[in-house]
Design brief:
heterodimer; A: alpha+beta; Thiol Ester Dehydrase, Chain A; six-stranded antiparallel β-sheet; two-stranded antiparallel ribbon; 3 helices; globular; B: alpha+beta; about 25% helix; about 35% strand
């Protein structure tokens, strides 16, 4: 059993099989979490370019959003996604990726979260996400 | 689909071998209207270790992949495409130990952009797990490294 009220973000990523599959690691940096997804061959969506799969980028952003909500709200349950919108700004290259999220608005039951993913340069985001998550 | 053009059959094979799709154990079912792909349930897809519910990112990934395929179905020749945006509405958690099927349809292709609607379900399309809306750029000039058949 995972206690989301006290769970360490780094250990949480290890406890979630799909995050382990993607190789996502989390570290606390200042007041927020920094997620890192080292490049791996199985993250590729277009081998010709090569480019990361759009689904991998969406997965990293959604994970960043969920992890930040757990870290900040410390509810008893895993936040449940209601909807997400991912905007793809540039192609995700075959290098390491990073993501960070912030809560734009926290209500009693629902939070609005914005997340951003980048690679070599944080000023040049690869994609961003806006989403709503149910909390308890 | 036996009546699909050769290049589209080739694209299907290519899209089936995508490392990400292969890595999650997914496969393309149909290149038609709708385009369909599925991912069987497996332990590595779990996003909630307590319930065994699959991570939302798996559904996003499958819908993105199937949406791209749906765009290709509507093109007359092979052209690189890129996801502009994708919205996913999660209707309900996916039931553990059941396949997830994505069905997507490209509703409109303009010169530059294609618009897609899709559904993810577990066998009954009337009981969806998620709905998606996406827009894709059609890169008619091609991008370096990708040969494009001249019009």
């Amino acid at each position: 059993m995972i206690d989301y009220r006290t769970a360490d973000p780094a250990k949480l990523m290890e406890a979630i099989p799909y995050c382990r599959h993607l190789g996502i690691v989390a570290a606390v940096e200042g007041g927020s979490l920094l997620l890192t997804m080292p490049f791996a061959q199985h993250l590729i969506g277009n081998p010709v370019l090569p480019a990361l799969h759009g689904g991998v980028i969406g997965s990293l952003l959604e994970t960043a959003a969920i992890a930040q909500v757990i870290f900040e709200t410390r509810g008893a349950r895993l936040p449940k996604p209601v909807d997400i919108t991912v905007d793809y700004l540039r192609s995700g290259r075959a290098v390491d990726s990073y993501a960070r999220a912030r809560i734009a608005r926290q209500g009693k039951r629902v939070v609005n979260v914005h997340a951003e993913m980048w690679q070599e340069d944080e000023a040049k985001p690869v994609a961003n996400l806006r989403g709503h998550f149910l909390i308890s | 689909m036996s009546d699909a053009p050769e290049w589209l059959k080739h694209a299907k094979q290519h899209m089936n071998l995508t490392p990400y799709l292969a890595g999650i154990g997914g496969e393309i079912m149909d290149i038609g209207t709708p385009a369909r792909a599925r991912v069987p349930y497996s332990e590595k897809l779990i996003g909630d270790p307590e319930t065994g519910v699959v991570h939302g990112g798996v559904i996003t990934g499958l819908l993105d992949h199937t949406s791209g395929l749906a765009v290709m179905v509507k093109l007359r020749e092979p052209m690189p495409i890129a996801t502009l945006d994708l919205r996913i509405d999660y209707m309900r958690p996916a039931k553990p130990h059941q396949d997830i099927i994505a069905e997507c349809e490209c509703v409109r292709v303009t010169h530059e952009v294609a618009f897609v609607r899709g559904t993810a379900h577990q066998g009954d399309a009337n009981d969806p797990i998620a709905l998606c809306t996406g827009a894709f750029m059609i890169i008619r000039g091609g991008v370096h490294g990708i040969p494009v058949t001249p019009a």
